[in-house]
Design a protein that fits this description.
This is Fe2OG dioxygenase domain-containing protein. The chain starts with a helix and ends in an 11-residue tail after the last helix. 36% of the residues lie in helices and 22% in strands. It contains eleven helices and 15 strands. It is an alpha+beta fold and 334 residues long.
């Protein structure tokens, strides 16, 4: 959906029309330089259980999770054809009219901008579908017949992403001396989520957020993106642009892993800046536990009070309703 067309839709026109008419809504985004995240070949993790052979790769992942909170994986085992098919389905999905996306296609999963925004500066220039994998697996009517191929593609990709996420979570848990399946036992395919993102061209792209600065409320996130770029992360109080690589996958640590690791692994603030010329598409996979899973630190003394994932989600939603922004982990720090 091009926003020149979308602005004719009443809800989008009301919010984004005011946004575009006020140049003070543009956000300053200083980026010192484009960064190349740690690039890690994880083929040995998938091909062998020999600890000696796995150790260099495992050490690289742990180091990146500690120093950057982000890293890139190649030879990850997810077929490039499957990722290309997901991108094709995603483009077809977002090309539909606003009325169909918001009510008819993927049951109750669509949103544009930020429904909880308290000011125009909290309105990102993007739209998305947040889809629980549980819905894909169990609800045969969650999407229209027109998008049955999308359902099949998402189910295949969800299974592949879950396998990959468990491999990575195992390495990160073992690095802290815990059994490798500790995180996987809390997270099944049915507790995880997809977010399909579309960032249309923005006529006032300079300094306009496609996605507001935030950290992820999960154990870890796996991102497949195109070559357009726009992803930025904060490191040492500065923002860095992430060089796009559509043939690799980006992995980042979420709030739950930071809390469980007692701040050893870092859930890093990141954002997406809009583009004036090209549509940007990405698919984010979130490794999450069940709502009643207790997130305790792996060591004592803990930096955080004990909480469930449900407690965390509830607090985040309350923060957004109250302030328009996520607060996250600081609300649970002792």
């Amino acid at each position: 959906m091009q926003y020149s067309k979308a602005l004719s839709d009443p809800p989008l026109k009301e919010r984004y029309g005011a946004f575009l008419s006020n140049s003070s809504n543009l956000q300053c985004s200083e980026v010192m330089e484009e960064c190349e995240l740690p690039l890690i070949d994880i083929s040995t993790l998938r091909m062998t259980d020999d600890e000696e052979e796995r150790r260099p790769c495992a050490s690289a992942i742990a180091k990146a999770a500690t120093e950057w909170g982000f890293f890139i994986v190649i030879n990850h085992g997810i077929r490039s054809e499957l990722l290309k098919e997901m991108r094709k389905e995603q483009q077809r999905l977002f090309a539909k009219p606003f009325e169909e996306k918001s009510s008819k296609i993927l049951k109750g999963t669509y949103s544009w901008g930020n429904p909880m925004a308290k000011s125009l500066t909290q309105l990102p220039w993007s739209e998305n579908f947040l889809v629980p994998l549980k819905m894909i697996i169990e609800d045969q009517e969650w999407c229209s017949l027109e998008f049955s191929s999308l359902r099949e593609t998402m189910e295949k990709l969800g299974s592949a992403m879950t396998d990959l996420a468990h491999v990575l979570a195992r390495v990160l848990a073992e690095n802290l001396g815990f059994p490798g399946d500790f995180i996987a036992e809390k997270c099944s395919m049915s507790t995880n989520y997809f977010r399909l993102n579309h960032y249309p061209p923005c006529p006032h792209s300079l300094g306009t957020f496609g996605l507001l600065p935030h950290t992820d409320s999960d154990f870890l996130t796996i991102l497949s993106q195109d070559q357009v770029g726009g992803l930025q992360l904060r490191k040492d109080s500065s923002w860095y642009a992430v060089k796009p690589n559509q043939d690799a996958l980006i992995v980042n640590i979420g709030d739950l892993f930071q809390a469980w690791s007692n701040d050893f692994y870092k859930s890093v603030e990141h954002k997406v800046m809009s583009n004036s010329e090209a549509d940007r598409y990405s698919v984010a996979y979130f490794l999450c536990p069940s709502m009643d899973s207790i997130i305790g630190s792996y060591s004592e003394p803990s930096h955080y009070k004990q909480f469930t994932f449900g407690d965390f989600k509830k607090q985040v939603e309350e923060d957004k309703r109250r302030t328009g922004n996520k607060v996250g982990l600081p609300m649970f720090r002792l």
